[in-house]
Every structure is written in structure tokens, then in C-alpha cells.
Amino acid sequence: MRKALFPGSFDPITLGHYDIIKRALPLFDEIVIAIGVNADKKYMFSLEQRLNFIKEAFKDEPKISVITYEGLTIELCERINAQFILRGLRNPADFEFEKAIAHTNRRLSNIETVFLLTAASTSYISSSIVRDVLRNGGDYTVLVPDSVRVEK
């Protein structure tokens, strides 16, 4: 069984994340979306909100599950028997950053990283851009799945 882990903070999940996950479904038997918890990081959305946004977005997809974790991503992969880490690439800077992490993960484990390029239509979207649009009262709904709704 081909099992992939898609880690991130998902603060919040964006249409870019959504696109990568949907396009990865034919490649894997199971995809575990893993929300990383970093005590030193300040999030806009609570862990519960982020979990709910993702669960709602993929509620009709039996191949997808959502969990939270702390610690090394490769250790989580080993605990849940995931052979792959799924990552999306928007631009050359993403590639350089993700390449270093992928090489480190391969050095420390047998986990392979699979990269998918974001669709041209979502390549400009990041969670930080969504948060900035939200903070400034803009229409964030064009950047996120329908499950991400915020009371203004």
C-alpha cells in the first residue's frame, strides 16, 4: 500500500494545498494530512479550526485522513507506516528549501519525498498571503476551499 504524509501548518489550508492533495490522490492508496504543532509559532487559527477546515474540505474522500503531530516528520512517517512525504512546489525558492529537507530526510530514513508542482492558477497562493488578506478585510474566499469560513 502506498501511503503518503502531507505535512504542514495549514494556517489555513489554501486552494494550492487542496489542488496538490486532489492531484496526488491517484498516486497513493492513502494520504494522511498532518498538521504540525510548533509551540513557538503563533497561529491565526486554532488547531481545532485547522483540523475542521481540512476534514470538511475532504469529508467525501475516504483515502484522506487528518491528524496532528509534534516532532520530526520522518518519525511520524515511521509511526504510521507512510513511505512517502508529499510536498507542493510553487517556485524556485520552495524547491531549494524543500530539496534540503528532502535530502536530510533521506539521510535519516528511507522515506522518499514526492514533489508536485502547483497549478499555475494557484501558484501565487500561500497561507501567509491568505492571513494578510484576512487581517485587512479582503475577500479571502477566492484563495481557500469552501470549508474555510471566518466570522468577520
UniProtKB/TrEMBL annotation:
Substrate binds at residues 9, 41, 73, 87. It is found in: Cytoplasm. Pathway: Cofactor biosynthesis; coenzyme A biosynthesis; CoA from (R)-pantothenate: step 4/5. Its EC number is 2.7.7.3. Keywords: ATP-binding, Coenzyme A biosynthesis, Cytoplasm, Magnesium, Nucleotide-binding, Nucleotidyltransferase, Transferase. Belongs to the bacterial CoaD family. HAMAP family: PPAT_bact (MF_00151). This is Phosphopantetheine adenylyltransferase. It comes from Flavobacterium agricola. The lineage of its organism: Bacteria, Pseudomonadati, Bacteroidota, Flavobacteriia, Flavobacteriales.
